[in-house]
Amino acid sequence: MSATVDPARVAALTAAETAAFVAAHPACAAEATTAREHLTYGVPMSWMAKWPGPFPPVVREAAGAHFTCLDGVEHVDLCLGDTGAMCGHAPAATVAAVARQAARGLTAMLPTPDAAAVGAELTARFGAGPSRVSRWQLTLTATDANRHVLRYARHLTGRTKVVVMDFCYHGTVDEAFATLDPAGRVVERRGSIGAPVPPSLTTLVVPFNDVDALRAALDGGDVAAVLMEPALTNIGIVLPEPGYLDAVRALTRAAGAWWVVDETHTLCAGPGGCTAAWALEPDVVVVGKTIGGGVPVAAFGLVPELASAIEHRVELEDIDVGGVGGTLAGNALSTAAARATLTEVLTPAAFAGMTARADRWADGVQAVLDDAGLPWHVTRLGARAEYAFAPVPPRHGAEAAAEDDFPLQQLLHLHALNRGLLLTPFHNMALMCPATTDADVDRHTEAFAAAAGALTA
Ligand code: PMP
After folding, report:
1. Distance (Å, rounded) from C-alpha 273 to C-alpha 45?
2. Which of 136, 195, 305, 397 could be a cystine partner for 119, CB 3.0 to 4.6 Å?
3. Span from the CA of 8 to the centroid of ligand 1 (angstroms)
């Protein structure tokens, strides 16, 4: 709970904002009633129930940084499909490539020439500088990419355990639904649904930014891989302290464990994610969501030695039933989308503009906090920024989780939604796409000032 805001005031404001939302969205409400008859939760995927308000806006169409709901309300989209639409909605080059490819065949379980081009482009971004990541495989989701990497890591190292960061998120990867209890034991993360086995059998959990804890976890000699984001982004943003990622590299190398850097969200740091921006040397990079401009496609890249070890240590006869793969992975449509998106949409020039907009957003939010006397902080990571309900940035996931205030967050998101602004439902986070304008950002700053005023009046 944020110590700075009275919960009764939050409840009263939420009631007023809920009434305003319902009144302004009769067509979305009618659609939600119909959907309830046919869809569990009334939505096609359960996460879509987590929006603030009694039902979500239903999208009529989306373009660039905006979408319009069935009630004709135009919104600035600062969620951007929780990174899936970081390129903006319907980017022209991706749409053209998809249309071209759709007419030439969607999937054949055979490569198209776009595949090698995508691999080359990913290497140019994530295999530059000290990184040697340069051999890629495509999947449909970042979840699948992470799963495949963990299987390969176990297979090649002959070890059983995976290290993850406390309060991480890497998709629906069983090993990652683990957290530390107050006594420091590995337990199921709160809300974990139907875990196959107790996570302590598969997973060691360490706090982010804690070198000693990682050293201790690797000491047992049973760790196949350390899977982590270079900056946590799924419990709010937690940035690495100076020297931390160098220590992770040195410790994993010494322990013979793979260092897997999941850049699915941190791609916001620049064209080659944090790997390029911070000159990291991972064994494996995972990217997803964004690289197809919204079309499902993800990838994992390996250093050459690991790629060739895989080629030698997996029997061709069993390759289709070994636990790594996917019938539609690397399909012609996704691959065409990825090629166009990487080469024509997510360009270095686009990142420069996105980062400038994110800085403008962060500056605006900080100025509002200062004016209102709210002791919260703002964190930036390239094209992404967020505010959190504590005066100083957290060092690790548990600290970040302790700062959370779900009712206050829901209110702020609903308040924004009623002013035509969509924030990422899981955090107070805003992401910029190439089409986001200064005016879009300023619209948020203005609405946020009104929210801060209502909270502190
Ligand atoms: N890795 C990270 C860091 C993520 O944030 C996510 C999704 N939020 C994933 C992997 C999984 O992506 P997907 O749901 O597209 O499989």
Report:
1. 28
2. 136
3. 35
Query: Residue 425's pLDDT band (boundaries 50, 70, 90)?
Result: confident
- Whether residue 268 is predicted with pLDDT greater than 90 in this model: the reply is yes
- What is d(CA 22, CA 279) in angstroms, rounded to the nearest whole number? 49
Task: Find the length of the chain.
Answer: 457
CA-CA distance, 415 to 292, in Å (whole number)? 31
**What is the longest distance spanned by two Cα atoms in the chain?**
69
Q: Which helix (H) or strand (E) holds 429?
A: strand 429-431
Closest CA to 237 of 384, 422, 47, 448: 384
Closest atom of ligand 1 to 171 CA is: 11
Closest by CA position to 282, among listed 122, 124, 121, 133? 133
| Best residue among 169, 263, 386 to mutate for probing ligand 1, ranked by most atoms within 8 Å of CB | 169
CA–CA separation, 137 and 265 (whole Å): 19
Q: What's the gap in Å between 170 CA and the centre of ligand 1? A: 5
Pairing status of strand 223-228 against strand 258-262: parallel
What is the enclosing helix (H) or strand (E) of 155?
Answer: helix 142-157
Q: What is the model's pLDDT at position 2?
A: 55
Q: What's the average model confidence in pLDDT over 188-194?
A: 97
pLDDT digits (tens, 9 = 90+) for 237-265: 999 999 999 999 999 999 999 999 999 99
Q: What average pLDDT does the chain have?
A: 96
Tokens of 156: 């090649």
Q: Look at residue 1 in the predicted model and tell me its pLDDT.
A: 45
pLDDT digits 0-9 by tens, 8-61? 999 999 999 999 999 999 999 999 999 999 999 999 999 999 888 999 999 999
pTM: 0.97
How would DSSP label each residue in 93-157? HHHHHHHHHHTT-S--SS--HHHHHHHHHHHHHHSSTT----EEEEESSHHHHHHHHHHHHHHHH
* ipTM greater than 0.90: yes
Q: Is the CB–ligand 1 distance for residue 141 below 6 Å?
A: yes
* Domains by residue range for the chain, with CATH: 7-77+348-456 (3.90.1150.10), 92-345 (3.40.640.10)
Substitution site in 168, 265, 268 for ligand 1 pocket (most atoms within 8 Å of beta carbon): 265
